[in-house]
Design goal:
- The complex is a heterodimer.
- By secondary structure, chain A is α/β, with parallel strands linked by helices.
- Chain A has helices at about 50-55, 75-80, 100-105, 115-125, 140-155, 170-185, 200-205, 225, 265-280, 295-305, and strands at about 5-15, 20-35, 40, 65-70, 70-75, 85, 160-165, 190-195, 210-215, 215-220, 230-240, 250-255, 260-265, 285-290.
- Chain B has helices spanning about 1-15, 20-40, 45-70, 75-80, 80-85, 90-125, 135-155, 160-175, 180-185, 190-205, 215, 225-250.
- The longest helix of chain B has about 35 residues, at about 90-125.
- Classes of the chains: A alpha/beta, B mainly alpha.
- Chains A and B meet through helix 3 of A and helix 1 and helix 5 of B.
């Protein structure tokens, strides 16, 4: 595997307040992203996620550290030609129409005129905005802004795409569509650097993750290595049996509409609960083994810090 | 090519800004008002129209340059549009030059429109086109380029209101600095004080270098060396301010 992004010992602090007080935001970030993977960058608010991305893109100049994109220094135009970026809460030139907007950004790349027009048309189609090509961006909804933002990030057919909270502000249908586009980017061999709060989405699509807390990377690696596949407990939903009979075997979580939800910890207890439901002629509605989720890992790491 | 793209986008953005048309409207009203003033004043009506018209062109042009230049870079940072643009393969100085040329193009077109109204108004009085007026307008344009660069420099690190105030101060100082030489320096006794005032006089911009209104209106002859001096003064002062702006912008963090 080729490393497409390397960050070594990145430090950044800002002077904040009327009487300037130094506040360290990044305290020695080091990470690497391999070609073709979807890399999830997680962290609570104010952990330094966006600052890291801004350092990579040259919007913020780090005090210390080294950033390389495809082996080139991150500020080199050669590096920037191969990347795409969708900022968090995208604000764009709202006096432009969708197609004018994409045309403007395409002029910042070396692109053949005929190819450019075709590319813009295809991208508008990809993000589902072909009907709004002539509409000014000031009339766009938040979800539409997110889509046009994704389109501009893909204008140069980038090998590495940075997406900062790409699923924020989207409805469930929109989120699925963007997730599908991200998965398609991976299929095309592109690398995606994804910053998100929505752990469910990260878990669903990311190959590797890094967790940043308070300016430091606390944990990073492949998802399957970080999250244990061991069953923590099993959730059982049943009806038709008196829940008090299970008191010694499981923890009762809720009783609603005649259905009881139990949290069963031991494997053998699960078996006993099932036998009891069967013997009392009760009805089993569901049985779900719960393994550790990214959310559990995230909460644990954040709590520790 | 990249500078051109940024410049045309800035131009397009300015053209869709209502403030621009408001200023243009008032400028047109003032130019036409000069006709009324000519009727009420004793003297050559054409000279009065030319005098008031050129003053309107200069004042409203400067107003456009200050108001639009002051928000030129700040607006990009405030609206976060700069994040996407600077993440593309573009140098920061290219972005800055693009913004500058975009506004200069806007001012050029606006000045052209105002000049057209002005020339037509004069044509109705003299039945000939007063070409020499264009010389005065050309130097007004050079002054506007300099004001734009100053407004943009302030816009790199300050809010639009402060930038407007700073640039307005630059404009007022620029048009009154001649008083230092003609009045103050002659009255001060030789010594450190006089040297200090002389240094300040040479550092401060002298925007009166671009004022050829009186000479043009009254058909006075101007040596060509003065034109050359004023042109070089405009070019080098603007370049100096642009380089300063680039240095400020190069080190800026966009939080």
């Amino acid at each position: 595997m080729t490393t497409v992004l390397t960050i070594k010992d990145l430090h950044k602090s800002f002077n904040i307040g009327f009487i300037p007080k130094k506040r360290k935001i990044l305290k020695g970030i080091s990470l690497s992203v391999e070609q073709g993977e979807i890399f999830g960058y997680l962290g609570p608010n104010g952990a330094g996620k966006t600052t890291t991305i801004k350092c990579i893109l040259g919007l913020i100049l780090p005090q210390k550290g080294k950033i390389e994109i495809f082996g080139n220094p991150h500020l080199a135009l050669k590096a920037k030609e191969k990347i795409g970026f969708l900022p968090e809460n995208p604000y764009f030139y709202d006096h432009l129409t969708a197609s004018e907007f994409l045309d403007f950004y395409s002029q910042l790349y070396v692109m053949d005129k005929n190819k450019k027009e075709e590319k813009i048309k295809n991208l508008l189609q990809l993000v589902g905005l072909e009907q709004s090509a002539g509409l000014q961006l000031r009339k766009f909804s938040r979800g539409m802004m997110q889509r046009i933002g994704l389109a501009q990030a893909l204008l140069n057919d980038p090998s590495l795409v940075f997406l900062d909270e790409p699923l924020g502000g989207l409805d469930p249908v929109g989120r699925k569509e963007i997730r599908d586009i991200i998965a398609r980017l991976k299929e095309e061999g592109k690398t995606v650097f994804l910053c998100s709060h929505i752990l469910q989405d990260i878990e669903m699509i990311c190959d590797r993750v890094a967790i940043i807390v308070n300016g430091k990377i606390i944990n990073q690696g492949a998802l399957q290595d970080l999250i244990s596949e061991k069953t923590h407990f099993t959730e059982v939903v049943f009806s038709g049996v008196d829940p008090r009979e299970f008191e010694s075997l499981a923890e009762r979580l809720s009783d609603q509409s005649g259905r009881t939800l139990l949290k069963v910890f031991e494997e053998e207890n699960v078996q006993k609960v099932l036998e009891l439901i069967q013997s009392k002629k009760g009805k089993l509605h569901s049985l779900i083994p719960r393994t550790e989720t990214l959310e559990d890992l995230f909460m644990e790491v954040v709590k520790q810090k | 090519m990249k500078i051109k793209a940024i410049a045309f986008n800035t131009f397009k953005e300015a053209l869709r800004d209502r403030v621009l048309y408001l200023i243009l409207f008032f400028a047109a009203v003032c130019i036409i008002f000069s006709r009324l003033l000519a009727l009420l004043t004793v003297g050559d009506p054409v000279k009065i129209i030319m005098d008031v018209g050129l003053a309107s062109l200069s004042f409203f042009g400067a107003l456009m340059a200050i108001l639009m230049g002051a928000g030129l870079v700040f607006k990009e940072i405030d609206k976060k549009t700069i994040y996407t643009t600077l993440s593309k393969p573009i140098h920061r100085y290219q972005f800055l030059l693009g913004k500058f040329f975009g506004l200069v193009l806007t001012l050029f077109i606006m000045l052209l429109l105002m000049s057209l109204i002005f020339l037509v108004l004069i044509y109705f009085h003299t039945f000939k086109i007063e070409w020499e007026i264009l010389i005065a307008i050309l130097f007004i344009f050079l002054e506007l380029c300099l004001i734009t660069s100053v407004a943009m420099l302030f816009s790199c690190f300050s809010t639009p209101i402060l930038s407007s105030l700073f640039t307005l101060s630059f404009y007022i100082i620029g048009h009154s600095v001649w008083g230092l030489e003609e009045i103050l320096i002659q009255k001060i006794k030789p010594g450190i004080g006089k040297i200090l005032v002389q240094i300040i006089y040479h550092i401060l911009p002298d925007l009166e270098n671009f004022n050829f209104k009186t000479e043009i209106v009254h058909h006075l002859s101007i040596p060509s060396t003065i034109f050359l001096y004023s042109t070089l003064y405009a070019i080098f002062y603007t370049l100096f301010i642009l380089v300063l702006a680039m240095l400020v912008f190069r080190k800026r963090d966009f939080i």
